[in-house]
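Per reviewer request, we include the raw input and output of the structure prediction for the construct analysed in the revised manuscript.
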Amino acid sequence: MSHYFENDDSLKSEIKDFEINIFDNHFIFSTDNGVFSKGELDYGTELLIKNILNLNLSGKVLDLGCGYGPIGIVLKKILNVDVTMCDINKRAIHLSKMNAKKNHVLVNVIESDGYENIDDHFNYIVSNPPIRIGKKNLYKLLIDSKDYLSDNGEMFIVVRKEQGALSLIKDMSVYYSVKTIDKSKGFLIISLKKC
């Protein structure tokens, strides 16, 4: 079985568009087989985006594991921050570039396995992380973010309670100042602040 954090060239392409309004801004996104949350903006990602928009961030942002690009594209369009987006999945990279053009935003889109091809520092890293890569790999992804955050930089993630959010908060407090900034329908929006 194929996962959205893998490249599967044998997977048939079946592009599907959907439209959404966020904070009175209209967006259109193309999605496809082999990419997380095909055909709609999943609830966890939407909750993460809305929480970040309420914080009115500025500076440089990395959308880690961007998928088809909703987080980075929305943040760029509404907050006009400097956005870099990355994903290991070639199809996700193609869709992110396509969706950036459709939504009239300029973002930097990089194919990267985690931070492999990232050589910059960011004020913020945002992610709906790929929980299915396993706890060990997930924790490495989160801990390694310290090397790519500016001083006092912050990472924002969304994790379901039933997928280990509470143990993640406890485990990450060794590395970061950790707090939950929102909870809804079993999803937690978590801030990991570099200190």
